[in-house]
Design a protein that fits this description.
Hect, E3 ligase catalytic domain fold, globular, Rossmann fold, six-stranded mixed β-sheet
């Protein structure tokens, strides 16, 4: 009996076994080799052996920046497992504080560690010279280390940006995608060419540089044609794009041209031999900003020109004349003048009136065209009730979808960004729910509803919630195969239900029962078409 296992009172074997288990988190961005995944794992394994831990799980982020948690699938999965209680360990081993993250807000780094601590899981930094035991000394050093990790990223960002501006000032290419008709040439430290870089290739040595060169003569002729048609023939960018597409001339991505791509060509100073850098910048993963002209880095004569400078200047002047900045008050004044002349306002009048900004400009400046009309005291005769009640009916739609999901025991409803909600019934079938308005017709005319879709309906079933003549309350429900609806618009009436293989239902409960029967592949019970 001397070698027998004796379990003492109050001993929780599962808890003691779990206490010997740990997970490791490793991350590498583009830092030094000492931060490679293998080196981190080796150091963590040594620490685990000394502390008698068994590493049972690994969370990894390869090639991911530590500035924020976005894009770090490993850390996101780790925090999610900790919060949901799906962990079979009570320690997380990390190489050092910088591998946990170089968050610019040190409180964010502490927040994720606190989540682990709150769920009974400790975070240990294996390469640090202090124990993360919550003592005063460890708390002070840990906070200093977090600040140092964040400051390292800030200093490195400034150094890299300064170096890139200096290289661009010397006439070399620094980052960014190429435009049509240009090539990248790799230049060695001895200023000799090492050949062209194809798409996706990068230089391997830090001493090498990248210089831009004109592409093929055929591409150069296409660039000159674009400038000639825009400046001399005074054709629009959209018309030029259509001509290139009809002639089957692909862009630099091998795809069709658009008017935006034409404008990109017309604005690019590379075609007159200039290198321009730092027009936009994005510091430490923040939102991209447009820098003022005096911060741009420009090197003239760095590339063999493709387009004449005078022609390029004329194209720039034409584009500048097309986009004139007008103050908000002046935009409203011009709108009032147009209203007094035309007697009414709508999108067509605004877009076709010379000297008046387009509808999109008014929406951008004032939020919507109706808000601009309110500011000048004009009330549009158009019925905008559907716009005002859109959110209400979408809430009604989600409420119905949730009730049906509970009744037929499927997953939660999903909104695809359109005017409908979908419920996955199985791998092949989806239930799509929509609210449709009744068209404005006379009292003696047949009732009609307009089903409008901006995207194709997924295969499965379509449930339509039809409104009454006033479009204020729900009249009834219609269930039909989704395959019956083709195109973006379809008119629905009581007379078309049999042709569409549709079922008319009185209540949401009848709709849920009919959907459940369809899911079970039972014969569907026909409901009568109710008279008005």
């Amino acid at each position: 009996m001397a070698n027998s296992l004796v379990v003492r009172k109050g001993t929780d074997l599962a808890k003691r076994i779990k206490a010997l288990r740990a997970a490791q988190y490793v991350r590498m961005s583009t830092d030094f080799q000492r931060y490679s995944i293998e080196n981190q794992a080796a150091a963590i394994a040594t620490y685990a052996q000394q502390k008698h831990f068994t590493i049972v799980r690994t969370y990894m982020d390869e090639g991911r920046s530590g500035l924020r948690i976005k894009g770090r699938a490993g850390l996101t999965k780790l925090i999610d497992d900790v919060q949901s209680g799906r962990t079979d360990f009570d320690h997380i081993l990390v190489y050092d504080i910088s591998r946990w993250g170089r968050f610019q807000d040190v409180d964010e780094s502490a927040h994720y560690e606190f989540i682990c601590k709150q769920n009974g899981i400790r975070v240990a930094y294996c390469a640090e010279q202090f124990d993360n035991d919550g003592s005063l000394l460890s708390s002070i050093i840990k906070n200093i280390k977090r600040v140092m990790a964040a400051e390292y990223s800030r200093e490195l960002s400034v150094k890299v940006h300064t170096g890139q501006c200096r290289i661009a000032g010397l006439g070399y290419r620094v980052g960014g995608p190429l435009n049509f008709g240009l090539r990248r040439e790799l230049i060695g430290e001895d200023q000799n060419s090492k050949g062209q870089l194809s798409r996706g290739q990068r230089k391997a040595l830090q001493t090498d540089r990248v210089r831009l060169q004109p592409g093929s003569e055929k591409e150069a002729d296409t660039v000159r044609r674009i400038f000639h048609k825009y400046v001399v023939d005074r054709q629009s960018a959209a018309a030029i794009a259509r001509q290139l597409n009809r002639q089957k001339i692909p862009n630099h991505h091998g795809r069709r041209w658009t008017d935006g791509m034409i404008y990109t060509v017309l604005r690019n100073e590379n075609y007159i031999g200039n290198i321009v850098h730092n027009r936009t910048s994005r510091r430490l993963g923040q939102k991209q900003i447009h820098n003022p002209d005096h911060l741009w880095v420009r090197r003239e004569g760095a590339i063999a020109p493709i387009v004449d400078r005078q022609l390029f200047g004329r194209a720039r002047k034409i584009m500048a004349d097309q986009y004139i900045s007008i103050a908000d008050e002046q935009m409203l004044v011009r709108l009032r003048v147009t209203l007094s002349k035309r007697g009414k306002l709508n999108s067509t009048i605004i877009n076709t009136t010379p000297g008046l900004p387009c509808v999109s400009s008014y929406c951008k400046h004032f939020g919507s065209l109706r808000k601009a009309f309110d500011l000048i005291g004009y009330t549009s005769p158009r019925d905008c009730d559907w716009i005002d009640t859109r959110q209400h009916w979408f809430d009604v739609l989600e409420e119905h979808a949730t009730r049906i999901a509970d009744a037929i025991e499927v997953g939660p409803p999903q909104n695809d960004g359109t005017n409908s909600v979908s419920l996955p019934l199985d791998r092949k079938m989806t239930l799509t729910l929509m609210v449709v308005r009744q068209s404005r017709r006379g009292p003696h005319h047949t009732e009609q509803w307009r089903i409008y879709r901006t995207r194709p309906i997924q295969p499965g079933l379509l449930a339509v919630i039809r409104l009454d003549r006033a479009n204020k309350t729900i009249k009834d429900y219609v269930l039909m195969p989704a395959a019956q609806i083709s195109g973006s618009c379809r008119w629905l009436s009581d007379g078309s239900l049999n042709r569409l293989d549709a079922v008319l239902l009185r209540s949401a409960d009848e709709l849920a029962n009919e959907i459940k029967a369809s899911c079970r592949k039972q014969p569907r019970r026909r409901y009568p078409v109710f008279a008005n």
